[in-house]
Design goal:
The longest helix is centred in the middle third of the chain and has 26 residues, at 36-61. Helix 2 (36-61) runs antiparallel to helix 3 (64-80). The chain has helices at 18-21, 36-61, 64-80, and strands at residues 2-5, 8-12, 31-33. The protein is α+β, with helices and mostly antiparallel strands. The protein contains 3 helices and 3 strands, in the order ββαβαα. The relative contact order is 0.14.
Length: 86
């Protein structure tokens, strides 16, 4: 993970948690760049925590609302952790 502020790399290392990012200022003041392997790891963790439970609910209920909730969670994760060319 890299943190870029004013076109300058100010951090390069492991992905940071939200509370660790606070020392770099507001999220609008910097850009995060991830390696593809980091993105895949972050996505996997987010899917397990956020979208997989919704998928199981949809499998149980089989309602359009549950399906939409699951698909929205997947789309949000993909938007949060984009992969180039996807």
């Amino acid at each position: 993970m890299k943190i870029i502020k004013n076109n300058e790399i100010i951090y390069s290392g492991r992905p940071l948690r939200a509370h660790e990012l606070k020392i770099y200022g507001s999220p609008q003041s910097y850009t995060l760049q991830y390696e593809q392997s980091e993105v895949l790891q972050l996505r996997r963790a987010a899917y397990e925590a956020e979208s997989d439970p919704l998928f199981m609910e949809w499998q149980y209920d089989q309602t359009d609302a549950k399906k939409q909730a699951w698909q929205s969670a997947v789309a949000a994760i993909k938007a949060r952790y984009p992969i180039e060319g996807e």
